[in-house]
Design goal:
By secondary structure, the protein is mainly beta. The chain contains 5 helices and 19 strands. It comes from Streptomyces sulfonofaciens.
């Protein structure tokens, strides 16, 4: 199943058409895309019966962040060995976890304002929690996943690395610095959800290319390690890490500039297409 946030309304996507969930369910489920994760099992039981005659064609540019208001947003650094190496680190023995915030979320076709001239790209597979996970062993972790989506963990490197010690996370907090989408794909739609092509391009030039099969800590282990510390709640997001090819590690270094178009993909899950503009970002809806 594939679901999405279409102009602020929850829809089921089938081919090039969308089913409005609130209408098709006769108001059993809300139009609010965030609310569905609290009722994920009930929703997935109902969804196959949704009346296909109610489908309508839609404009993909109206798609917004599929999870617009998560309670918690986790991210993992240095989770690919090649990315750790390009930054001068060895592979970590434990997941290196930081947070992002929902004010950073934006949609799959949003234009992102650049707060500085050293903004970097980081293509990521993003996991959406569908059932509360607390002290969950790795072998049961996937049963707590609602689905997968595509994400970017944008980073303003100057702000991120300023000071001693550097504040690793703060350069990742700007509005628009967490594009996600274009839809949520349930794991059963994928042949192997642990081995997905991942990458991104800037103005058509591929700058990152890898596979999620190379994650040091795969999805199941990340859920096990995080849920050992605190509950993962329905609708929470987990950015799983980025492969090598970031601009900051290049020689010469390369960053995003106004007018650039960044395309990000995860095989079988979808593709983001975000443009960039000069100027300080403003907080707005997760579009």
């Amino acid at each position: 199943m594939r679901i999405a946030n279409l102009a602020g309304r929850l829809v089921i996507l089938r081919d090039e058409t969308a089913i409005d969930v609130e209408g098709a369910s006769d108001h059993r489920f809300s139009a609010d895309p965030q609310s569905i994760y609290e009722r994920w099992e009930e929703f997935t039981d109902w969804a196959p019966t949704a009346d296909a005659s109610t489908t309508v064609r839609y404009d993909p540019r109206q798609l917004r962040a599929p999870v617009p208001r998560p309670a918690q947003v986790f991210a993992v650094g240095l989770n690919y060995a090649d990315h750790a190496r390009e930054n001068g680190f060895t592979a970590p023995a434990e997941p290196s976890v930081f947070t992002k915030f929902r004010t950073s979320l934006t949609g799959p076709y949003a234009t992102v304002a650049l707060p500085g001239d050293t903004v970097d790209w980081e293509a990521e597979l993003v996991v959406v929690i569908g059932r509360c996970a607390h002290r969950v062993p790795a072998e049961k972790a996937w049963s707590h996943v609602a689905g997968l989506t595509v994400g970017q963990d944008l980073s303003e490197r100057t702000r991120q690395l300023i000071g001693s010690p550097a504040q690793f996370s703060i350069g990742k907090f700007f509005p628009g610095f967490a594009p996600t989408g274009p839809e949520l794909v349930t794991p059963d739609e994928l042949t192997d959800p642990d081995a997905l092509e991942i990458g991104c391009s800037v103005n058509g030039e591929v700058v990152q290319s890898g596979s999620t099969s190379r994650l040091i800590f795969p999805v199941s282990v990340l859920i096990e390690r995080l849920s050992a510390v605190l509950p993962l709640l329905p609708g929470d997001l987990l950015f799983t890490g980025t492969p090598s090819g970031v601009g900051h590690a290049r020689d010469p270094q390369r960053y995003l500039t106004a007018g650039d178009v960044l395309e990000t993909w995860v095989g079988g899950v979808g593709r983001l297409r975000n443009a960039f503009a000069a100027g300080q970002p403003a907080v707005g809806a997760a579009r």
